[in-house]
Amino acid sequence: MSNLQLFAASVAIWGSTWFAITFQLGRVEPEASVTYRFLLAALLLFAFCGIRRLPLRFPLRDHGWIAGQGVMMFGASYVFVYFAEQHIVSGLVAVGFSASPLIGMFGQRLFFGTPITARIAAGFSCIPNGLGPAMEISMLLLW
Fold first, then answer.
1. What angle do CA 19, 69, 82 make, to 5 degrees?
2. pLDDT at residue 128, rounded to an integer
3. 99 Cβ partners below 8 Å, 6+ apart?
4. At residue 115, does pLDDT exceed 90?
5. Domain residue limits at 7
6. Are residues 23 and 73 in the same domain?
7. ∠ at Cα 90 (86, 95), nearest 5°?
8. Which DSSP helix (H) or strand (E) runs through 111?
9. Whole-structure pTM over 0.85, yes or no?
């Protein structure tokens, strides 16, 4: 597949995710929706790994880290996303959520001393260009 096809597939899948979340809202609690979503994803990943015969054995000491990452990076953050989608337009939530890697980079700097390079700083400077207009449109829709 070409880079363009891979990019288009990613945009279509990721973009439709935010829209699909709006259909789950109000049916069950956000925590239950996230649980269903990640249980289904886990089953699909286990099936994929089984078909490809990928090893899933990790040292016991790694299981805590793996579980912690899953809960914090995916579980907790998506619960907040579902709550946010009850009050804010899904497109704005998607733009805000796309900033989560930035939080991770700042966390790495704070906890592990990983430097923030000039290239990363240049990327940070582009955020207001996308976030500002999205927030303005959302505010107009809310009023």
1. 25
2. 62
3. 127, 131
4. no
5. 1-88
6. yes
7. 125
8. helix 100-112
9. no
Whether residue 143 has pLDDT greater than 60: no
Task: For residues 116 and 46, state if they share a domain.
Answer: no
**In this structure, what DSSP letter does residue 74 have?**
I
CA distance 119 to 33: 37
Among 78-82, 105-109, 120-124, name the one with the lowest average pLDDT. 120-124
Question: Is residue 16 situated within a structural domain?
Answer: yes
Q: Answer yes or no: do 69 and 42 share one domain.
A: yes
pLDDT at 136 over 70: no
Residue position matching structure tokens 């923030």: 116
> What is the 3-state secondary structure of the chain?
CCHHHHHHHHHHHHHHHHHHHHHHECCECHHHHHHHHHHHHHHHHHHHHHHHCCCCCCCHHHHHHHHHHHHHHHHHHHHHHHHHHCCCCHHHHHHHHCCHHHHHHHHHHHHHCCCCCHHHHHHHCCHHHHHHHHHHHHHHHHC
Is residue 131 within 8 A of residue 95, CB to CB? The reply is: yes
Same domain membership, residue 115 and residue 66:
no
Using pLDDT thresholds of 50, 70 and 90, give the confidence band for residue 141. Answer: low
CB 24 within 8 A of CB 82: yes
